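Project outcomes to date are best conveyed with an example. Our students and postdoctoral researchers have been running inverse folding experiments weekly, and each run begins with a structure described purely in C-alpha cells. The record below, which covers 89 residues, was selected by the lab manager from last quarter's runs and is presented without edits.
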C-alpha cells in the first residue's frame, strides 16, 4: 500500500520545509506499528534540524514519544494536544 503513488503523496517528509517553524504537536506511542514510531521521530527531528539551520529562535515544535502500545494514545495526550491547539488560536 505504501508504494502506491497516491499514498506516497501523503508522506509528511515532503512538507518538512514548509512546516518548520509552525506550531506542531507531534505525539506518538513508542510501539506504533501502523505509522512507525521511528518514522515519526525522524520527521520531528527533521523539522528541528530545519529550524536550527534557519536559526529560528523560538521553536513551536513539541515532539513526544510516549509509552503506548499500538496506534492509540491515552486521553491525557489527546487532551494535551487539544490544549496545545487551543493555545495557538
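After processing, the design step wrote out the following sequence:
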Amino acid at each position: 500500500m505504501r508504494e502506491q503513488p497516491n499514498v506516497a503523496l501523503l508522506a509528511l517528509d515532503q512538507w518538512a520545509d514548509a512546516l518548520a517553524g509552525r506550531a506542531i504537536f507531534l505525539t506518538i506511542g513508542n510501539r506504533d506499528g501502523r505509522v512507525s514510531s521511528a518514522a515519526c521521530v525522524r520527521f520531528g527531528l527533521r523539522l528541528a534540524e530545519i529550524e536550527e539551520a534557519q536559526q529560528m529562535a523560538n521553536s513551536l515544535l513539541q515532539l513526544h514519544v510516549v509509552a503506548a502500545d499500538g496506534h492509540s494514545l491515552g486521553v491525557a495526550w489527546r487532551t494535551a494536544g487539544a490544549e496545545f491547539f487551543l493555545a495557538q488560536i
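The chain has one domain: 5-88. The longest strand covers residues 61-69. The training component of this project remains on track.
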